[in-house]
């Protein structure tokens, strides 16, 4: 397996952005290490003054502890809040508690950086004199960043789910006609027909025709059909409930999940009003599977804007608020990796 080496702090900070797919803001980002190899990436909002520090740190430690091979962690505190030499280090109590809790799990806090608007500083050396800062725009020229960009990776400015608005023919009437045909069928027959169409598109590289898009948008409006179609996305022969809750022992076929995302985005571009809620919710479930809580929340919120009473979006967003992370996202052998990161192994900590 090809290896990509991390040689500088800029490489690591760049990797955090590429792993998340966007540039974090007011965030604590932790990257797990197994010896000299990279594990999973966790992003959480920076704690407010009202946050219970013990609960906040416990949540982070529980996530990292799920990677049983993790021996170390590096972190980035991304904030635009000003800091001057001589000031107390930001979030010092949180980081000290995190260091102690991780050490009890035999995980070492290896290194970390305070990443500001224009510069970054080694967090662990902020108490020394003088304090050295580095220009943040320099990471664009890091070797790892250049390699990942070459492979097709990019870092968005924010975690938003950006969907192009295209001028396309309204297919709402066709959706209604398909809904009538589905209602006239038995539930089992409707599911079989929907799975046949959905499966053929997941295995294809083509976008659905207008009629196929209308049929699928109608299919997703029926709860039993919708759940079965979502469960078909990972490509695993497992219980439906385990698939929806990411509780399988085997990893999903992530290339198939990527394909489903593309199809659902296309369907969303053809949907209108309440027709969009099931599709947006399904996209949110995928984002949750991938460990992208911010994007999942945005999808669920958009779904509720389209249909305030859409139950699956309500329940799924409540699950996010409770801090529940998809089991796949907490398993280094099952967790989602962007397509350009799936073949190379990223390792090397040459950070003198």
From TrEMBL:
PROSITE patterns xref list: TPR
Stated name of the protein: DUF4192 domain-containing protein
InterPro entries, per database record: DUF4192 (IPR025447), TPR-like_helical_dom_sf (IPR011990), TPR_rpt (IPR019734)
Keywords: TPR repeat
Taxonomic path: Bacteria, Bacillati, Actinomycetota, Actinomycetes, Micrococcales
Taxonomic source organism: Arthrobacter wenxiniae
TPR repeats: 277-310
